[in-house]
Automatic annotation (TrEMBL):
GO terms for biological process: CAAX-box protein maturation. Residues 139-241 form the CAAX prenyl protease 2/Lysostaphin resistance protein A-like domain. This is CAAX prenyl protease 2/Lysostaphin resistance protein A-like domain-containing protein. Pfam families: Rce1-like. InterPro entries: MmRce1-like (IPR042150), Rce1/LyrA-like_dom (IPR003675). One of its GO terms (molecular function) is endopeptidase activity. The chain crosses the membrane at residues 27-44, 50-70, 90-108, 128-151, 172-195, 201-219, 226-243, 255-277. Keywords: Membrane, Transmembrane, Transmembrane helix.
Amino acid sequence: MKTNFSNTPVTSSDGEKERIRFARRGLFVFFAMLIPLSILGYVLALKSEIFVLLLMWAPGLSSIFSRLLLREGKADLSLKVGGRQTLKKLPFILLFPVFIGLIAYGTAWVTGLVQYVTPDSFIKGSPAVVFMGLLLMQMVVGTIVGLIGGIGEELGWRGYMLTRLIDARVPYPILTSGVIWGVWHLPVMIAGAYYSGPYPVLSIILFMISITSFGFIIGRLRLTTGSVWPAVFLHASWNAIIQDVFDASSGGKNVLLWTGESGIIVALTLLAAAWFFSKSRAG
């Protein structure tokens, strides 16, 4: 996959070397800003949930700082929302989390590995009515609200880091970006504040499988559409639908063993989805 997201024209081998050097410099500045800002976010978020938004914006702020310091501009960010490719992906963006949720969580509910519970809601009716009502609400309202944090992460991960990994000729850049994204979450997992199941080491392994697989899919989406917005919307819709509908509807002693982003069934389902996308033109 040959992709040129930088503003440096490539007309010769010297131009190619300059583009690689420029991308590596951008990555250095990005991580130099990301690490301390993330540490600050972790410390504050563990004290009060209000600072979770700061943590989610650490990648975005780091990318903005890098662009300003290196005078890179924003042309490669692809902030235009429109375009045929982006519009074609809208059904996928909204339905992918639903599809994964129904397969993974549905399997856990039907087999009895995880108990289905009706979450507290202003929606009244049978369990099926409550579930569908919450699902539809989160697909729209939840996704819109989730953009606040989703933009912060995606400006950094897929809007900056991924494209620089490609230009820097880092092997398997999409896969690498997913691994980095997963590792970035680990401090809050280790602290027991995010999808920490009954077996911590297993939870970390399964979480890395889940997040790297999802990162592969969301990275492909960003590159094939040429815009960062599909990645932003998919990130937001995933959080809204999976966390606020499927996780909220699951209970039992082993709920975090089988479901959630560190659950066995969710990890295997996302891994299968990533494998499918790697073998097809989808995404």
